[in-house]
Amino acid sequence: MGGYLANRIDDLTEEVWTTFPVLGVTTGNADGGVVEEILRDFGANWYVYLSMPVLAAVIGYVTKILAIEMMFKPVEFVGRPPILGWQGIVPRRAARMASIACDTMTSKLISPGEIFERLDAERVAKEI
Question: What is the pTM of this model?
Answer without folding.
Answer: 0.47
